[in-house]
Specification:
This protein is mainly α. The chain is 65% helix and 5% strand.
Length: 111
């Protein structure tokens, strides 16, 4: 995954409405009207969110007659997971050091 793709993905994920849309799409395809239903915003506003998600490669839109379903595309999320995994070692090491320090503190008599 390129840095530009990762930036587009993170930018798309930065908005709670877009994350909610992705959560809904994780359950299956949905139309714009179905995706807009829970949000107190206009259809054009929801369409703008969908455009950002589509440009980041997180969704695709199909066409079946009059029905235009949106689908979740997981590939960019795999790139985010890979990027985060590189830092997991750092977090795990830090938590391990903290755990050791707490054990040392608990083992010492109170002063």
């Amino acid at each position: 995954m390129t840095a530009d793709q990762l930036s587009r993905t993170f930018a798309a994920l930065a908005d709670p409405t877009r994350r909610a849309i992705l959560a809904r799409l994780s359950a299956g395809e949905a139309t714009v009207n179905e995706l807009a239903e829970p949000f107190p915003m206009s259809l054009p506003a929801v369409s703008r969110h969908l455009k950002v998600l589509e440009q980041a490669g997180l969704i695709t839109r199909g066409r079946t007659r009059q029905w235009r379903p949106c689908r979740l595309e997981a590939k960019p999320l795999e790139g985010v997971a890979d990027w985060v995994a590189a830092y997991r070692r750092f977090w795990d090491d830090g938590f391990g050091r903290l755990e050791e320090h707490l054990r040392e503190l608990q083992g010492k008599p109170d002063a």
